[in-house]
Design brief:
It contains eleven helices and 14 strands. By secondary structure, the chain is α/β, with parallel strands linked by helices. Bound molecules: nicotinamide-adenine-dinucleotide and UDP-4-deoxy-4-formamido-beta-L-arabinopyranose.
């Protein structure tokens, strides 16, 4: 029987790619999003991509009554909870807003799920819960910490999930710790399009390549890494999306949850990423060396072996694919806004 999955935050960057992966895998999907950080045309784009009508509910995960209505109106089998605020810098300025949205949103959702008798959940966590990891590559057993309210909110969510699962064996929750998701769908129809000046490296590089921003600041070239710039585990967003499908299947199959890293296991430096993007776009990417950004680790990359063993997860796309798909998407997004 076809399973129906509710995606909170499904109109966002990772949620929209996961929508595409779930439809490909044969699931029915309902999206709930308050559009606080999603473009209004995403549902139309997803309809074109999937070749079928889409069910989108505009609502907030903090709105318990709206959630109850969704569970009453649809036979939801499982939920993937993407809806959250994700800017590290903003979280430092507005910690209460982050706690309310990210922690309050999870609690409200899990209460509504419990009331509806839905116990299968996939949760968007982050490698940020490792803080400045001492162990590289980082396994799931590494000590957890946080360096900002955003990271703290994710860590609290993980703890709430662990306590809830311990209280009632009916729960089966997949906690997915994403490393650095980048790139765009190969169709060029969906991708990451942050409003204003991006916080993150790949969208910034993309905006420099397309001519929307003049120059990239490389935050530090004196880290203990091969070329002195920060090293990260970039993972193509469609690989990440596939990880959610595999997580759901594991919950269905095993009836118990898992905590897994989603990364490739391979790190690239800022300069390597710039060079790869320049090759993929055939554009010069001007950059200048700037001071380190507060709170940045020198290196972060996953030990992906648990995801392979438990979920059968294997990243398919390489750094060139990540840059190439981002570049195609950026050009399409620019054309649409011109
Ligand atoms: P995104 O901002 O593109 O997507 C989040 C979506 O949730 C948006 O569409 C937004 O409108 C919606 N939303 C936010 N608050 C909501 C609320 N209260 N009610 C309903 N909808 C709400 O972000 P993303 O990059 O797709 O991230 C998805 C999830 O993955 C988040 O939980 C994020 O913390 C986590 N994550 C992201 C990254 C990353 O680098 N992008 C890394 C690790 C973890
Ligand atoms: C990558 C590298 C920077 C911008 C963040 C969050 C994390 C997670 C993913 C949600 C670093 C360098 C960056 C720029 C640069 N999000 N950089 N110039 O910091 O690894 O992770 O996004 O959970 O919680 O902290 O990603 O893309 O910001 O930075 O030189 O303009 O690029 O110093 O080495 P980060 P990032």
């Amino acid at each position: 029987m076809t399973q129906c999955v509710l995606l909170t935050g499904g109109a966002g960057y990772i949620g929209s790619h996961t929508y595409a992966a779930l439809v490909d895998a044969g699931y029915d999907v309902v999206i709930l999003d308050n559009f606080s950080n999603a473009a209004r045309d995403v549902p139309n784009r997803l309809e074109v991509l999937a070749g079928r009508g889409i069910h989108v509910i505009e609502a907030d995960v903090l709105d318990r009554a709206a959630l109850d209505t969704v569970f009453a109106d649809h036979r939801i089998d499982a939920v993937i909870h993407f809806a959250a605020l994700k800017s590290v810098g903003e979280s430092v300025r507005k910690p209460l807003v982050y706690m309310q949205n990210n922690v309050g949103g999870l609690v409200t959702l899990m209460q509504a799920m419990e009331a509806a008798g839905v116990y299968r959940l996939v949760f968007s966590s982050s490698a940020t819960v490792y803080g400045e990891a001492e162990q590289l590559p980082t396994p799931e057993t590494a000590p957890l910490s946080y360096g900002n309210p955003y990271g703290h909110s994710k860590l609290i969510c993980e703890q709430i999930i662990a306590e809830t699962v311990a209280s009632d064996p009916r729960w089966a929750v997949g906690v997915l710790r994403y490393f650095n998701p980048v790139g765009a769908h190969t169709s060029g129809l969906i991708g990451e399009d942050p409003a204003g000046v991006p916080d993150n490296l790949m969208p910034y590089v993309a905006k420099v390549a397309v001519g929307e921003l003049p120059v990239l600041s490389v935050f530090g070239d004196d880290y203990p890494t091969p070329d002195g710039t920060g090293v990260r585990d970039y993972i193509h967003v469609s690989d990440l999306a596939e990880g959610h499908v595999l997580s759901l299947k594991a919950l269905e199959r095993d009836g118990t949850g898992h905590v897994v890293n989603l990364g490739t296991g391979r790190g690239y430096s800022v300069l390597e990423l710039i060079a790869a993007y320049a090759r993929a776009s055939n554009r010069h990417i001007p950059y200048k060396i700037a001071p380190r950004r507060a709170g940045d680790a020198a290196s972060s990359y996953a030990d992906p072996s648990r995801a392979r063993a438990l979920l059968g997860f294997e990243a398919k796309y390489d750094l060139h694919d990540m840059c190439r798909t981002s570049w195609v998407w950026m050009q399409n997004a620019k054309k649409a806004s011109d």
